[in-house]
């Protein structure tokens, strides 16, 4: 287990490696985040972002009951502030806990700092107390109180709840009564309220509307301590991150290539860096800049690999053919018979020298050659299938004067065979409720929902939970689709689950990998109407872009509910904006 120091104002990682059995997740990772800096973690689903954050937040990794990575082999050094707080994708609250109790638990450290300040102040004038020690104690308590801003805790609580769209949340409500989005925002509010010295955030913008996302951006840009966050929100990365750390193992080779070209990594070291798990690649620009740099890196890596392979083929041929090419087997003529012995020795020496030189160059290049760029996990697109019922015009789905009390009110909505609809609106406007109505998973309190006979509707939900965490993705896929369809459209061919993860228990996959599986279960038998609730939540940046492109050519109806500002800026279909207060919205 790593050596952890909790006396630093920085967050520093040196030589960190993590492995689960024979699967290496991170290798020799190192970086530093200073106070006021905000490092964004990016990489494919399963690259180790959540794993890294859990380890950074652990007080005593390896201690029974406090091990964030059971079964992992971890080495390296970690330095971080004592009060380091984390926001996880899986929320820690029990359903029967009350909102007010959780908020008070969040500020327990701050309340303790306030009590210590009061006790230290009283000790200053106490009889028989060492004055120097008392003054030192008070100074330390005052500094802690100032960092935690203990005097404004109640005001900050109300401001945070309002800024994250939770102002009307009843403080006496139970956690189990809140929606998934409310629970996520409440967890974020509780963490920020606790004022930790360092922040670790795992997908903080999931479930945030524009106003709440903008509020969080402002808070983080003003945060005095180090911040490390994992996010697939491209707009958020552009606006908040002061640096990016790419944990994608596929980029390690490009990094090793650049370092070897600079003379910083040579020989076997370059080769091992290419083959290792993610060593992390720090990039100091914006996310938009990073996208262009990564494309250029990949192209240079591919060109270098191809050039070196061509050189290897030439050298191998040279070694095999040099003797025949130099000596070319011509017998001596009468005129040079007297030189036969002398010339034979010269020819043999020339052959030997040329073979030796070629062998040396070949040996060096074989030891230092750049590895083939690994094929990235790339979404193969929507499989072929019967997406539409027929070619006649008319609505597949039609809603008329529907209402779900306290959640949604809609005058009318028509979904045709080629509809492309983006549903937007603030938290609580009813986006998920609308998709549930269209999917037939919820009945309206009033109004009518008409569906064409034989209609197949698929829904990708925001939060994915598999009932059997021990089942493997391949087995679940076959169970849901049936053996025949699973054979016709293999899960591995969809480019959503890596080959190494097909038979791992689904409960051991990351949240993003589980959502990839949920997406596969929908598109493997493409529905006539494809409903997606926050489709880019938890998905890697690469997959989010590939999915958006695939949906543009989907031969059926597509309805998306999303807060993703990047997606919305590029949307060229219809848009339905729902009001936060239910009202009739004509379409």
UniProtKB/TrEMBL annotation:
A molecular-function term among this protein's GO annotations: ATP binding
Keywords in alphabetical order: ATP-binding, Coiled coil, Nucleotide-binding, Repeat
Coiled-coil segments: 298-368
Presence of the UniProt keyword Repeat in the record: yes
Domain called ABC transporter: residue spans: 11-274, 360-587
Domain of life of the organism encoding this protein: Bacteria
Entry annotated with the keyword Lipid biosynthesis: no
SMART domains (alphabetical): AAA
Protein name: ABC-F family ATP-binding cassette domain-containing protein
Source organism: Agromyces aurantiacus
């Amino acid at each position: 287990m790593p050596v952890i120091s909790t006396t630093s104002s920085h967050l520093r990682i040196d030589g960190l490696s993590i492995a689960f059995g024979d699967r290496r997740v991170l290798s020799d990772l190192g970086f530093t985040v200073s106070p006021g800096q905000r490092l964004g973690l990016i990489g494919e689903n399963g690259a180790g972002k959540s794993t890294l954050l859990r380890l950074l937040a652990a007080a005593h990794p390896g201690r029974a009951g406090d091990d964030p990575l059971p079964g992992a082999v971890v080495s390296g050094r970690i330095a971080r502030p004592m009060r380091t707080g984390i926001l996880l994708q899986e929320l820690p609250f029990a359903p029967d806990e009350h909102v007010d109790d959780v908020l008070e638990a969040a500020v327990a450290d701050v309340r303790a700092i306030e009590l210590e300040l009061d006790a230290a102040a009283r000790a200053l004038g106490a009889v028989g107390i060492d004055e120097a020690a008392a003054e030192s104690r008070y100074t330390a308590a005052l500094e802690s109180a100032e960092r935690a801003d203990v005097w404004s805790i109640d005001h900050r609580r109300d401001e945070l709840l309002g800024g994250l769209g939770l102002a009307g949340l009843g403080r006496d409500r139970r956690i189990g009564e809140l929606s998934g989005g409310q629970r996520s925002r409440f967890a974020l509010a509780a963490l920020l309220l606790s004022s930790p010295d360092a922040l670790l955030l795992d997908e903080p913008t999931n479930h945030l509307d524009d106003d709440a996302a903008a509020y969080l951006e402002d808070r983080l840009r003003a945060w005095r301590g180090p911040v490390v966050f994992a996010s697939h929100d491209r707009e958020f990365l552009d606006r908040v991150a002061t640096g990016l750390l790419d944990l994608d193992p596929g980029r390690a080779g490009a990094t090793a290539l650049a370092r070897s070209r600079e003379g910083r990594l040579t020989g076997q070291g370059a080769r091992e860096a290419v083959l290792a798990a993610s060593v992390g690649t720090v990039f100091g620009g914006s996310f938009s800049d990073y996208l262009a740099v990564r494309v250029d890196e990949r192209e240079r890596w591919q060109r270098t690999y191809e050039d070196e392979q061509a050189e290897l083929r030439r050298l191998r041929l040279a070694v095999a053919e040099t003797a025949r090419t130099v000596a070319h087997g011509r017998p001596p003529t009468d005129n040079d018979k007297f030189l036969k012995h002398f010339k034979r020795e010269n020819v043999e020496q020339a052959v030997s020298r040329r073979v030796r030189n070629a062998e040396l160059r070949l040996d060096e290049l074989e030891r230092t050659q750049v590895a083939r760029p690994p094929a990235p996990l790339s979404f193969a697109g929507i499989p072929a299938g019967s997406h539409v019922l027929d070619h006649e015009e008319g609505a597949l789905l039609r809603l008329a004067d529907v209402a779900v009390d306290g959640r949604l009110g809609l005058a009318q909505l028509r979904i045709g065979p080629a509809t492309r609809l983006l549903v937007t609106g603030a938290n609580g406007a009813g986006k998920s409720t609308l998709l549930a109505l269209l999917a037939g998973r919820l009945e309206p309190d009033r109004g009518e929902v008409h569906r064409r006979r034989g209609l197949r509707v698929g829904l990708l939900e925001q939060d994915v939970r598999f009932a059997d965490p021990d089942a493997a993705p391949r087995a679940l896929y076959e169970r849901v689709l049936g053996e025949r369809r699973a054979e016709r459209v293999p899960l591995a061919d969809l480019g959503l689950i890596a080959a190494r993860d097909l038979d791992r228990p689904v409960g051991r996959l990351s949240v993003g990998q589980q959502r990839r599986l949920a997406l596969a279960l929908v598109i493997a038998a493409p529905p006539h109407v494809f409903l997606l609730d926050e489709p880019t939540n938890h998905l890697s940046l690469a997959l989010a872009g590939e999915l958006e492109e695939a949906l543009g050519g989907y031969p059926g109806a597509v309805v998306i509910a999303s807060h993703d500002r990047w997606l919305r800026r590029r949307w060229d279909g219809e848009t339905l904006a729902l009001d936060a207060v239910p009202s009739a919205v004509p379409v």
